[in-house]
Design brief:
The chain is 49% helix and 11% strand. With 945 residues, the chain is α/β, with parallel strands linked by helices. The protein starts with a helix and ends with a helix.
Length: 945
């Protein structure tokens, strides 16, 4: 074989420009130049194109664009693509810039009036294959799959996978040469290709595989046994032929540019003029590294990069894109950075990359107590380091060097060097639960931005399907078991804080955290686009991080003396109830002992329904006691419930909250978990300030201890019946929707319509029953649950529920629909598209299955409410600042926000907060039922709510 004969065929890359444009536009949040020109799609496109140019083995490359909406297909079928919406207004001015960007990168930009980009791609791919070239079409567009052959393949850049004959067969059920026949029958609603009514992809594939091709099928359509299918094919044969003309790509367009013009050319310094004009600092960092120092100096000499940073409100200027599995294994090649020269090298690498994974090690998980021990950085998969700044020596065993502290950069100096990088808007900082890192670094004067969070990306993708801790995600997505904290710091009484961990162990543990964070981000972030979840992440989850971090830092003031007084009051009342319990029982026993209580209830008093568990003790949980209260009529179970409530209030709040007061701030700082619930709700921990009971007088007393600073007042704003309003909206219950629009008493109206009683002079008990049903229905309440809540028989409760469904049938339709969706998909969605997973919806265990069915019903409502209040929280700081208000947001308790505002600002702060909350769903989602936020003020939380 001659050398010429053995030469590898040239590789031609044809990029579907439209696919790149729209993915880039939806991948990044709004971004604009200092002159106001929108540029997010341009930047995303440039990053994607640069990666393709760098990673591909192309000898020839071109980006193919659509020249306009009208093509020869409109002459065949006037309605072709007629209902496609116009491009978003902020995208339109970016089309020309993207073509300019393509040329700036020294890549051919091709378009031709009268033809779609797909036709040009088909023509060039056919020409290239005919002359022996290998062809890769960079697109996941199903219409291009008809081109796949021996020398032609598609490549999906978002999923990083090749699409060959096997993938086409999986998609269409036929080989590529029959894709047109299948599409002719099935049609395409997105392009308004009619096809044959009643025939989808699966049926079309079955027919083509049976009859061989479209013409044969249509000729023998009268032989088909299924009457409806036969009738549709016979009556719509012409539509099928028209559809074939529409979906068949032209492979013989009289193109004006030859393949030889697409030869791959090196990116040169000319690209810098384009990125400078558009103020793409992150992209400039990448290109600087590529073009070399001479280009950097020339650009700086020309005055480049002095314009202000483009202004994305939450925004990364660069996002690492998915890549093939890196050669460097996790845990290999990490560097211990112990001097300034080494740290400066890593800072330079991060600046060139435009992104870095960042993680910190501290002495405590409590943000306000944690001392910084070290920081780890990763600038690509397998390239990570650890920068110790606070390790101390105590014994020779711990550090291997006696009692002296190990060699490390002084803390203040390390922060001084890293601060510009961590605050640089041109470098994306990636963390896993980065809120913690932001909060700790803020105490050292560093504001980390812009940010991405691999934990929250995972949370948006698979909310309640599994946990989102790094260890679990590493095993799930990377197949790697991470080093555990106990492996380096010890366990139990032998555990030390991280500042006592030896540097070799600290390096392996901390650098791995940064490396894994990078890899998780690289793996998961592209899925947001592919699974259409980018909007949830970009508009809700990511911008919420700094808002919540600030709330946690601000904390809330607690009156310790009031809590001490309450503790004494609760103790006194518990003593009284305990004596009453002993009197009723006829003997003294430990009320706090479930075992002794069970023996009193079921052995001594002989109350019905006692059930023993595996330990041999009777079950005495709240559900058991509540049922006993209803079924037995005995006073003892209710007395025990009263005693337990006071006991919990005393131990959990009155006694514990004073211990949680930070001595430096005099305030309590809760932590809000951002990825802990299946519906998107925040969860308060350490201490939990969302679980303070407010339905009882005793519970409300705890809120009296939450007070404002002198000269300030607490402002509470909460949504009125938001989940019930959303139920009316999502179940399309017009009478309820109209009642909300009219501002009617919804519970009285429900009672009137369901029970047939007039609103005027209505018995309060009847309204209470309707209220219980209204709220119970959206939680999937059973007849038993309603009977317990109202103190009525199950038969009567069941009749109430049936009457409710009869009056509002849309509710039952909604419930059935949510359960069906959950069974099919494993999740339900909020109005904003958040996925709420319901594992166990198909469980064989009836109790678990029933529980998850109720979750499927409520999750879209609770999740939509969570999305709405999160959107309000994100907008609140800017709204207060714009109004010149100094108030600050302290707490979120599901549907309620608590603020601390100067007394003089209370009316304006109330107005602004209510306006933001009532309009938080806009412009993303138009809801036909008005959202109402009620506001109250007071010197303490109880007065304000």
């Amino acid at each position: 074989m001659t050398a010429a004969a053995s030469k590898k065929p040239d590789h031609v890359y044809l990029v579907d420009g439209s696919g790149y444009i729209f993915r880039a536009f939806h991948a990044l949040p709004p971004l604009s130049r200092s002159d106001g020109t929108p540029t997010n799609a341009v930047l995303g496109f440039c990053n994607m194109l640069l990666k393709l140019v760098e990673d591909s083995d192309a000898e020839y490359i071109a980006v193919i664009f659509d020249a306009g909406r009208k093509t020869f297909r409109n002459d065949i079928y006037a309605d072709y693509k007629a209902h496609r919406p116009e491009a978003p207004p902020e995208l339109i001015p970016q089309f020309a810039l993207i073509r300019e960007a393509t040329r700036a990168f020294n890549v051919s930009a091709i378009e031709m009036p009268g033809y779609e980009a797909d036709d040009l791609i088909a023509t060039y791919a056919t020409q290239a294959a005919a002359r022996g070239n290998e062809v890769t079409i960079v697109s996941s567009d199903k219409d291009l799959m008809q081109l796949v052959g021996d020398r032609i393949a598609l490549f999906d850049p978002m999923k990083n996978r090749k699409i060959g004959e096997a993938e086409v067969l999986e998609k269409f059920g036929v080989k590529p040469d029959k894709v047109v026949d299948v599409q002719s029958l099935a049609g395409d609603s997105s392009d308004n290709v009619p096809g044959v009514p009643g025939i989808g992809i699966k049926t079309a594939a079955e027919l083509i595989n049976t009859y061989g091709d479209l013409d044969t099928l249509l000729a023998k359509a009268g032989e088909i046994k299924q009457p409806k299918r036969r009738e549709n094919l016979v009556n719509n044969a012409e539509l099928a032929r028209i559809s074939r003309d529409l979906v068949t790509l032209k492979r013989d367009v009289p193109v004006e540019h030859g393949l030889d013009e697409f030869v791959k050319r090196e990116i040169d310094g000319a690209v810098m003029e384009f990125v400078t004009k558009n103020e793409f600092r992150s992209l400039a960092a990448k290109l600087n590294a590529r073009l070399g120092e001479a280009s950097i100096k020339a650009t700086r000499a020309a005055g480049g990069f002095t314009a202000p940073v483009a202004t994305p409100s939450a925004a990364p200027a660069a996002t690492p894109s998915a890549a093939t599995a890196p050669a460097v294994k996790i845990g290999e090649g990490y560097e211990l950075v112990q001097n300034e020269a080494a740290l400066l090298r890593w800072i330079e690498a991060a600046n060139k990359s435009g992104a870095l994974a960042f993680d910190i090690e501290t002495t405590s998980l409590n943000v306000n107590e944690a001392k910084l021990v070290g920081m780890s950085l990763a600038t690509q998969a397998g390239k990570a380091c650890y920068v110790p700044v606070g390790h101390i020596g105590t014994t020779g065993d711990l550090l291997g060097g006696g009692a002296e502290a190990p060699k490390q950069i002084p803390l203040a100096r390390a922060i001084e060097l890293l601060k510009p990088l961590l605050e640089d808007a041109a470098v994306l900082k990636i963390g896993h639960n980065i809120k913690y890192d932001m909060a700790v670094m803020a105490r050292y004067g560093v504001t980390i931005a812009p940010i991405d969070d691999s934990m929250l990306i995972s949370y948006v993708l698979e909310g309640g399907a599994h946990g989102h801790g790094m260890d679990e995600l590493s095993e799930l997505h990377l197949g790697h078991a991470t080093i555990k904290f106990g492996d380096v710091a010890g366990t139990g009484k032998q555990q030390v804080t991280f500042d006592h961990v030896s540097l070799d162990k600290a390096l392996a543990y901390a650098a791995e955290d940064a490396d894994v964070t990078w890899r998780l981000h690289e793996t998961l972030k592209p899925r947001l686009i592919a699974e259409r979840l980018m909007t949830i992440y970009e508009t809700i989850e990511r911008p919420l991080i700094p808002v919540v971090a600030q709330m946690e830092r601000d904390g809330v003031k607690i009156d310790a003396k009031e809590l001490q007084r309450l503790s004494q009051d609760f103790a006194s009342r518990m003593g009284e109830i305990e004596r009453e319990i002993h009197r009723i029982a006829g003997t003294e026993f430990n009320v706090g002992s479930p075992k002794q209580l069970g023996e009193i209830l079921f052995d001594q008093l002989k109350l019905p329904g006692g059930k023993k568990g595996k330990t041999g003790a009777y079950a005495t949980g709240a559900d058991v006691l509540e049922e006993l209260t209803v079924t037995s009529g005995h006073p003892l179970p209710q007395k025990v419930l009263d005693w337990r409530q006071l006991s919990k209030l005393k131990s959990t709040y009155a006694d514990a909250l004073p211990l949680a007061i930070n001595p430096e701030t005099g305030r309590v700082h809760t932590s809000f978990a951002l990825a802990a619930t299946s519906t998107g709700r925040l969860a308060s921990t350490d201490p939990n300030l969302q679980n303070i009971p407010i339905r009882t007088e005793e519970g409300r007393k705890i809120r009296r201890a939450f007070v404002a600073e002198p000269g300030h007042i607490l402002l509470s704003v909460d949504y009125s019946q938001i989940e019930l309003r959303l139920a009316a909206e999502m179940a399309e219950i017009e009478p309820l929707k109209q009642a909300f629009r009219d501002g009617a008493d919804i519970h009285a109206m429900t009672a009137s319509q369901v029970f047939g009683v007039p609103i005027e002079g209505m018995d309060p008990m009847v309204r209470r029953q309707a209220k219980a049903i209204n709220f119970g229905i959206i939680y999937g309440i059973s007849a038993f649950g309603l009977s317990q809540q109202l103190g009525i028989g199950q038969g009567e409760a069941k009749a109430y529920i049936e009457a409710y469904f009869k009056r509002y049938p849309g509710i039952r339709d909604y419930m059935d629909r949510m359960k069906k969706i959950a069974r099919e998909k494993g999740y339900v969605e909020t109005l904003f598209g958040r996925r709420c997973y319901v594992p166990g919806i198909n469980d064989k265990n009836p109790a678990r299955r029933s529980f998850m069915e109720r979750a499927a019903i409520n999750a879209p409502l609770q999740g939509t409410a969570a999305d709405i209040i999160k959107r309000a929280m994100i907008r609140m700081p800017a709204a207060f600042a714009a109004a010149g208000l100094k108030g600050r947001m302290l707490l979120q308790v599901h549907d309620e926000l608590l603020f601390e505002v100067p007394v003089a600002e209370k009316d304006e702060a109330s107005r602004v907060a209510r306006a933001i909350m009532e309009g938080a769903h806009l412009p993303a989602r138009q809801i036909s039922v008005p959202l109402i936020a009620d506001a109250g003020t007071g010197m303490n939380w109880a007065e304000a709510h």
